[in-house]
Amino acid sequence: MENLIRLDVVDLVLALGMMAITIGLSAWARLGLEWSLAFAAARTMLQLLVVGYLLAFIFALDNLWAVMAVVAVMLTIAAVVARNRISKKVPQLLPLVWVSMLFSTALTLSYTNFLVIQPQTWYEPQYLIPLAGIVLGNAMNGAAIAGERLVSIINASQLEIETHLSLGATPQQAVVQYRKQAIRAGLIPNLNQMMVVGIVVLPGIITGQLLSGVNPLDAASYQILIMFMLAFANLVTALLVTQGLCRQFFNNAAQLIK
Questions:
Q1: Which domain holds residue 27?
Q2: How does DSSP classify residue 252?
């Protein structure tokens, strides 16, 4: 962008001064966060600079398999994080989360790229990688919240579930209300964000575009698209993850596994 003010090494060093002040304030207030803040700042700089150089290389390469490799790595990391936040005790949870996020992300990006944005090549890294990262990050949170809530509710409601089963309910009927609660919990962050976007807070995407010199209406249009993408992807992910989790809690005889 012609209007973009580029940040050089000196600018980044000056920006680092804010973290130095933050660490100093922590020491002054005796919060004990000095090393944590320093470590977090170092990781932030290292990770983002590595990602910046990597994406610059991928963008210049403009190769389908390179783009797919980046998306696959992001998908796997997101699935592992979501699995760890849900539970490490549920069998086959990682494949369930991985496939659910793959399906919801692929469906969302296909709709967006082929019907809305329509770039010259569907795998154009300028669009596919950033959008995939946004969708995967939010799908990860949605899956983690919905999955963790469902596991917690089922573990705390075993007596009620067994009562429903003894009265002739199927496993799906016995947990249907718990599944709905979990899915709603997974969608709450998206709903809250959609209610206040542009009024209380400007999301990072629109802020970054404005700083890059993009027309405010174009930036707002892309933010609208992204908000709708996230709501769709999160709901699909939550539906698939909770459906798979419900099956994990029952055996072939429709008995609750304790």
A1: 1-61
A2: T
